[in-house]
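agent> Task received from the user: take the single chain below, predict its 3D structure, and emit structure tokens. No templates, no multimer pairing.
agent> Plan: (1) validate residues, (2) run structure prediction, (3) serialize to tokens, (4) report one or two observations.
agent> Step 1 OK, no nonstandard residues flagged.
tool_call: predict_structure(input=
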Amino acid sequence: MKEESSENYGHVLKYTGVFGGVQGLNIIVSLVRNKLIAVLLGPEGMGLASLFNSTVNFVSQATNFGISFSAVKHISELYDRGDDAALSHFIKVVRAWSLLTALLGMLVCIVAGPLLSNYTFAWGDHTLHFVLLAPAVALIAITGGETAVLKGTRQLRSLAVVQIYAVLSALVISIPIYYIFGQAGIVPVIVLMALVTMLLTVRHSYRLFPVRLRGEKGLLGEGMAMVRLGVAFLIAGIMGSGAEMLIRSFLNVSGGDLDVVGLYNAGFMLTITYAGMVFSAMETDYFPRLSAVNGDVAATNLTVNRQIEVSLLIVSPMLAALIIALPVLIPLLFSAKFLPMVGMAQVAVFSMYVKAVSLPVSYVTLAKGDSVGYMVLEAVYDVVLVLLIVFGYRNWGLLGTGVALSLSYLFDLLLVGAYAYLRFHYRLSTLVLQYAAIQFSLGVAVYIVTLIDNPLIYWSLGLLLCLVSLLISVYILHQKTSLWASLTKKLKDRFHRHA
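)
tool_result: status=success, residues=499
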């Protein structure tokens, strides 16, 4: 039993690190790519590329019925059951729906081209551009379906390889095209990147599950449960995007200019986006595992609590270091003009401590297929988030938005925790509460240190607390996993081979 427990902790730790590392590589390459593109295209070109990309993503999300996410649950259940015939058949269902959404997305992009041009751009007619971007929407839909197949069948190594090659391909493809064609290369780059990502994905998924052109009738009808869950996920995403739009509009009007919005966006990116890269393994590895055991209350509780424990232990030292290092990181990543958002970002970091606990719990509702419950929970959270941001900014300015972000995540934890407790009998483990109390207390101590003006005390005491947080996490993970012994064995074997 202890050996099995060690293996389970090791699996969670391994793939949280793998996909967190892939996201880290993605961010680094994106920073390099954006810097080069900024030089080649200038602010106007980057703005144009951003508008095209955001519109393509919007059309894609609005027409794909959330299949790339919801299909994972059903595939995982069949895969864990070991029913190969049913699994192969359902993959046909997923591919049929992916093809349908691809055609729908492409058609919408073409037909709505004039409307998209009018509402996206204040100058010129870009209808032809949106018509030419239609294939990218279709390719993204196909990729989403095949990615769901790889996630559901636990092809985690393949997924990591696809993500790495896709990130590097974006750099290799975009820079030469922008160098030669300038802004005229924006549309071709978007389409080519969608094509490359699709080819990388299907290369792995088709090899495992070859395409069968002869299929049974009624495939689309069999996927309605998957689509209902996917639509719920899609609507929740739209509500979240709407909440973010309202927040930015409010800050723009209340702040009097775009500077406040820019500072908020930068702080949000550093804390919620970059610090959240550790959670990228949730959808890729954790959700399929959770879906496979969703019918067993004890197994569900065990899976959720272990994911929380590992997430907390990995992310907490990083968050402590981020709090102390933000005054140095912000001028390096942005410029000295962004220093006014240091306080906001430092407070907002606490939202990630809470997210390490709340996110694994929130996936329980999805794994159970409770689409209505998920939508209601997300709607309530979005409303509370907007209200807290408005209240926080009006009372404490930009710092108040950081407080509001952390409070909104705390509210979300209480909300989804109570729902999972009452509806699905989920219980937080004692170990989760212990680890959360220890690491959160260290995070608060680090934040208190940032209020000290003496640089010597600031850095010495701050770094010492970060080191304590790291040592605690390493010690606990060492006790619970066999990864350290495995790594030591590999190093010894390699040394003996070269000796």
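agent> Step 4: summary for the user.
Residues 2-63 form the longest helix (62 residues).
agent> Done.
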